Amino acid sequence: MDSSNTRIAVIGAGVSGLLSAYYLIRSAGSLEVSVFEARGSPARPHCTGLVSVETAERLPLSREAELARFRLVTLLVPELKLSASFSYDRYAITRLDRVKFERMLLNDIMLRGVEVSYNDPVYEVRRLGGGWDVRSRSGSSHYDYLVLASGYNARLPGLLGLKRCVRVLSGVQVDVEVGNRSELIEDSITAVISSYLGGGFAWLVPLGGRGLTIGCASDNRSISSLECLRMMTSLASKLYGSIKPFSGVYGGAVLRGYPIEAIGEGVVGLGDAVAMVKSLSGGGLYGISIASRLIPELILRGKYRVQSHFTRLARDLRQQYYLSKSVPTLLKLARSVGLAGKRLYVHVGKHLSYDNHIRMFIESLTSRALVAPLTSRSTLEISI
Ligand SMILES: Cc1cc2nc3c(=O)[nH]c(=O)nc-3n(C[C@H](O)[C@H](O)[C@H](O)COP(=O)(O)OP(=O)(O)OC[C@H]3O[C@@H](n4cnc5c(N)ncnc54)[C@H](O)[C@@H]3O)c2cc1C
Questions:
Q1: Which top CATH class is 50-81+167-252?
Q2: Alpha-carbon separation of residue 169 from 135, 150, 166, 200, 317 (angstroms)
Q3: Residues lining ligand 1, judged by CB closer than 6 Å?
Q4: How far apart are CA 111 and CA 80, in angstroms?
Q5: Cα dist. 343→189, 196, 234 in Å?
Q6: pTM for the complete prediction?
Q7: CATH architecture, domain 7-44+98-163+259-325
Q8: What's the gap in Å between 96 CA and the centre of ligand 1?
Q9: Which residue(s) pair with 189 in the sheet?
Q10: 274 C-alpha to center of ligand 1: Å?
Q11: Residue 295: count of CB within 10 angstroms of its CB
């Protein structure tokens, strides 16, 4: 595509849309980038902001938005009285202040001439003369290329022929101050998987000082996400003493799924719009951090230059999705091989990223150290 006068419409000013605009506006001065956003104001608090250190390194400006770093992840399965602690000998996970991060991206792209239009939902997109007619609240305009970064809602991806496999969970969180700070390990996060959480999962993540974020994602059918949050709050108060909320309840859609067709004729989908998520943890920033950097190359030089990267990412996310679907079976298996009541300590070597859930899982389960002492000891130590 000739880059002079190329007009690009980015639909959605969440992290996917902002990062796309960030890379696009740096790639060639003659691109014109416009971002449409349905909401009235920038950056809303909704996300925990946990990413691997490797993902954070791929995200521009993320260092200034860093809140905390972690080296220990403890997984609890209450019905099995099972806990597995994955410890890294380095900081492996970072917590970003998502609101600050998105505001920094927004300031950056606006300074570079990207037009960002709030309170301006896109209603309709139609293929017209090799480009797109985009109709939004503020009017109608013609663009050469579309970046769809409109979040999990299915309407626009469907209209544009983009395909994804997706299951939507309802995610809610609350920030609290804990009474007993000495119990709060600052570089440690806790995740809970349990059939009591309606096919979902929950998390406790330190915020610094006495602060703790309590969150959960559930499918709202067997149990509501608010009920899950109440259960997690009561678990947190058993662990850390009294609990005093200092935020309201906030959150949004937590997805499980993977992209099937993220690139179409004159359009690319990014982030939640095409279910670019790590299904076990609901993490969206991993896929977004990889795919957003490829967008200028895709638009300026064509699909064949980036297709293999998109395919590899989609395959990785699809595998993570199927692993998340097999969690109930794996828990049954854990019970039947006698893991109930055990405490596992898994030492994760330097080479494994927190993003690589599959290898962490498989290597710890297939470790000889795990299988051998199953019958006798209640504490197991494993190195991977
Ligand atoms: C409770 C919770 C905790 C999470 N924790 C983590 C975590 O720890 N780590 C992690 O990596 N991920 C986490 N996630 C997931 C992560 O937040 C999402 O994957 C990510 O925000 C998706 O970004 P996005 O830009 O694709 O979509 P969104 O953030 O949903 O942005 C889409 C934007 O498009 C706008 N829009 C929609 N339709 C239109 C339209 N027609 N016209 C114009 N604008 C439109 C919307 O208003 C919205 O602003 C969490 C999510 C939740 C809900």
A1: alpha beta
A2: 30, 17, 10, 7, 17
A3: 11-17, 36-39, 46-51, 121-122, 149-151, 153, 156, 171, 173, 215, 251-254, 271-273, 277, 282-285
A4: 54
A5: 16, 20, 22
A6: 0.94
A7: 3-Layer(bba) Sandwich (3.50)
A8: 14
A9: 73
A10: 11
A11: 25
Where are the domain boundaries for CATH 3.50.50.60 in the chain? 7-44+98-163+259-325
DSSP state of 192: E
Residue among 22, 46, 258 whose CB has most ligand 1 atoms within 8 A, to mutate = 46
Compute the C-alpha angle 343/345/347, nearest 5°: 170
Q: How far is the CA of 41 from the centre of ligand 1 (A)?
A: 14
Gap from CA of 311 to ligand 1 centroid (Å): 22
pLDDT in tens, 56-95: 999 999 999 999 999 999 999 988 999 988 889 899 999 9
Residues of the chain with CATH 3.30.9: 50-81+167-252
Q: What is the pLDDT of residue 373?
A: 46
User: Which segments in the chain show pLDDT lower than 50?
Assistant: 3, 368, 371-376, 384
